[in-house]
Design brief:
alpha/beta
């Protein structure tokens, strides 16, 4: 028997926000002083470093649980299952539902319960819960679903990653240009075969690393000090990711018994193109290998960093042949990997 993804779905918001759209923003330094470069220079340098040209924002009338429902519905349809047969709905997010223009997160009832309600699932044995695990949340949800199925507790699980980061950014912080909104979902089932999830790895570094991503005040000191926004120590995260993510990926691959030569694709959290490229190079270097051409599909250029949604959305786009010159075939070995607030790291080795 195998534990395998039988269906996937994603929701990419319609509102496109380009780097040029930030031209009127007043970017400031952390101390509130004016930033030293004009916005066109900021946008150019930003693209050179991150690779991001555009990002997507959810419509004003939608919240995180809404776009998660859209992705979940598509995954269920793709899997061709009756939603009443789901044993678990595991919903990874970080900030709950945040309405446009609001300053308060709404996570009661859980977003998983709201998605279950929208799916009109009557079965009370379909258990829904949320997990907060930073950007690696969807992968962690997959690892948990895999454990439930292995233990005989479940046979079918719906795992969702969704976020509306555009609602929690400080528009005076250049880092706000990184973030976007989106949702991705997968159905994980026990099926015949010997492929599916072959290995996994997770870790939390929370000594000094816990504060690398946090909620903090706006760089605009005239704004309400009690209102907080997502903030990060970018250089520290970059160095941490380069040091730890390749190790976690290697640990996962070695556990699976799969050789590095069998890996066809690495689906890594889309946060920063330069960082992801450096991680991939370090990972293959651990095996004294060069990076194969086309091994790392990218969606960040047009979709930005949608946190927990980046990896499941990327997977779904590949399965639906929506990324140019990139596709997945049955039997392909792929690695799913992510890093984010916690600081958390995880990876899965998966045979399609």
């Amino acid at each position: 028997m195998a534990i395998k993804i039988t269906g996937s779905g994603s929701y990419i918001p319609n509102q496109i926000v380009t780097n040029i759209d930030f031209a009127q923003h007043q970017f400031l330094n952390e101390d509130g002083s004016p930033f030293g470069y004009p916005n066109d220079v900021v946008a150019r340098k930003f693209k050179e470093i991150t690779g991001i040209e555009e990002r997507r924002y959810a419509d004003e009338n939608l919240v995180t649980s809404d776009i998660a429902f859209f992705a979940a519905q598509r995954a269920i349809e793709d899997a061709k299952i009756d939603p009443e047969t789901l044993d678990y709905i595991i919903f990874a997010h970080n900030f709950g539902n945040v309405k446009q223009g609001a300053i308060q997160s709404d996570a009661v009832p859980s977003l998983a319960a709201r998605v279950k309600q929208k799916l009109r699932i009557q079965n009370p044995k379909c258990v829904g819960y949320d997990i907060l695990f930073g950007c690696p949340g969807w992968i962690e949800g997959m690892i948990q679903a895999n454990a439930f199925i292995k233990a005989g507790i479940a046979k079918k699980c719906l795992v969702i990653g969704a976020e509306t980061l555009s609602r929690v950014v400080d528009i005076h912080d250049r880092d706000s240009m990184i973030y976007s909104d989106g949702a991705g979902a997968t159905v994980l089932e026990l099926v015949d075969g010997n492929d599916g999830i072959l290995g996994h790895s997770s870790a939390t570094f929370a000594t000094d690393e816990a504060d690398y991503l946090f909620f903090g005040n706006s760089f605009n000191k005239d704004l309400d000090a009690d209102v907080r926004y997502i903030k990060m120590h970018g250089r520290k995260i970059y160095e941490f990711a380069l040091s730890q993510v390749p190790k976690a990926m290697k640990e996962c691959l070695d556990e699976s018994g799969i050789s590095i030569g069998e890996v066809k694709k690495v689906l890594i959290h889309q946060a920063n193109e330069k960082m992801d490229e450096a991680i991939i190079h370090r990972f293959f270097k651990l095996y004294d290998q060069s990076v194969p051409e086309g091994v790392m599909p990218m969606s960040i250029h047009k979709l930005g960093n949608s946190s927990v949604a980046t990896v499941p959305t990327l997977y779904d786009l590949l399965m639906k042949n929506q990324i140019e010159n990139q596709h997945l075939n049955k039997g392909d070995v792929i690695i799913l990997a992510s890093v984010g607030a916690g600081m958390n790291i995880n990876a899965i080795v998966y045979r399609c």
